[in-house]
Amino acid sequence: MREGVANQSQGNHDRAEVIEVKSTEQAKLDVDGSSQQWIELPEVLSVAGPVAQALKPGQGKVLAKLAGLEAAALVTVPAATLVKIELAPPQLALGQGGSALLSVLGTLSDGAAVDVTAQAGFSSSAPAVVSVSPGGSLRGLSPGVAMITATVAGMGAMAEVTVTAAKLISITVLPSTASLPAGSRLLFKARGQYDDGSQADLSASV
Questions:
Q1: pTM of whole model > 0.90?
Q2: What is the DSSP string of the chain?
Q3: Model confidence over 50-71: pLDDT tens digits?
């Protein structure tokens, strides 16, 4: 967790270190002596005793003073970076002529989730079966299976799309009735009925 080189003054034994702390992580700043005064940059760091808590990207300085001596630590909190993407839903079925919308969900290095659909590029392994537009909009053109690939910052994710020859004849919202207390949430789904008797979850399409 700690990076950098300590610069020590031979005259007063002052010490300065550069420490990199990932957001949501803590770094213990050890300074010789038993009674230190800790100073923080509140927007970047929160300091409780010898423990610094990263709050947001930036650089903060922590000082320790004891018996007329002073030591400094520069703490860098790097910005979170994108480490993984995935397509949602990863599998879906469309009737011929049907449409759906894919989302690209990213995971940052600090564990946070973010929607990166707007930054993604899309392609279809079988454009004659499924077409895909910027933003992840799909349309089933002919029966078959196509793999849809999304790419963001050199990372890729795939979803499998099956197009059936069946025609959509009705849709149902589930649950059909609900009692919802104020302030609560309920996830609805849309299910499609096709003329060949098959059914499919169309929640991503409506």
A1: no
A2: ---S--EE-TTT--EEEEEE--TT-EEE---SSS----B--TTTEEEETTEEEE-SSEEEEEEEEETTEEEEEEEEEPPP-EEEEEEESSEEEEETT-EEE-EEEEEETTS-EEE-GGG-EEEES-TTTEEEETTTEEEE-SSEEEEEEEEETTEEEEEEEEEESPPEEEEEEESSS----TT-----EEEEEETTS-EEE-TTT-
A3: 777 777 787 777 777 777 787 7
